Amino acid sequence: xxxxxxxKIWFGISLLIIIPxxxxxxxxxxxxxxxxxxxxxxxxxxxxxxxxxxxxVKKEGVQDPxxxxxxxxxxxxxxxxxxxxxHRQVKKKLEEELKVTETRFxxxxxxxxxxxxxxxxxxxxxxxxxxxxxxxxxxRKVPKPVSSWQFCVTAIIALLHDVLVMLGVFSILGHxxxxxxxxxxxxxxxxxxxxxxxxxxxxxxxxxENLIKRGSAxxxxxxxxxxxxxxxxxxxxxxxxxxxxxxxxxxxxxTTQVFILALLVGIATGTxxxxxxxxxxxxxxxxxxxxxx
Length: 293
What we know:
Layout: H1 7-28, H2 34-37, E1 39-45, H3 50-59, E2 66-70, E3 74-79, H4 84-98, E4 101-108, H5 110-138, H6 148-177, H7 183-214, H8 219-251, H9 257-292
Antiparallel strand pairs: 1-3, 1-4, 2-3
């Protein structure tokens, strides 16, 4: 299998996946949950009559309620922050008129939501910066003429590919299916970042080992051999992880579905980018350096 020979096809597939997501982010952004926007969330079971639910909660003084149907026949009511007395009043009215059961209630104030948003950005920025430093240090003794920064930059580009795909998918899901992201999505993003970099480092480490043994006379063939040597390991590990997560997504509760879905998307795209993007980008870079010389 000559993966490097068809690198333009792999890059094209990545662009076809990324571009719709980028357009979606530019047009609609991400649908943020109450962790980031503040407000209250009430999940009830026992009815699917969303119109009647809206009518009742509005009569009780809840402003601009948003009703979302979720798996398992439940409804989620989102609104501005509800005081505890107002929450009990709404809950009592729904139970009396529709015989429903409240299964979850969450409320986040504006100060807390702002703090969560700031910490989310800081965590992702800090993780990315540490990854850059770690990669540069780990590959500092790579044989010439390949530079450690080539490994570092291509790994970061592959990482950005995975994050863009994940954000794009959730932007599209948010616009068409009202899927919201919360603080657990940030945890999933950090997990995907770690998984993606780990998978890429496995491939790059084999390239480094082969450079020491064989030299860089035919770097494209060397990179292709290195990818094939780690191919079955990457696919098997990712496939087994994907199966476990898929089981959790299908059988788990609604509260973890967004988190699990983010991991599923991230692991799938992370495996793809490690094999079909990271090493081919390294080959393109090295070929250009050679032509310039």
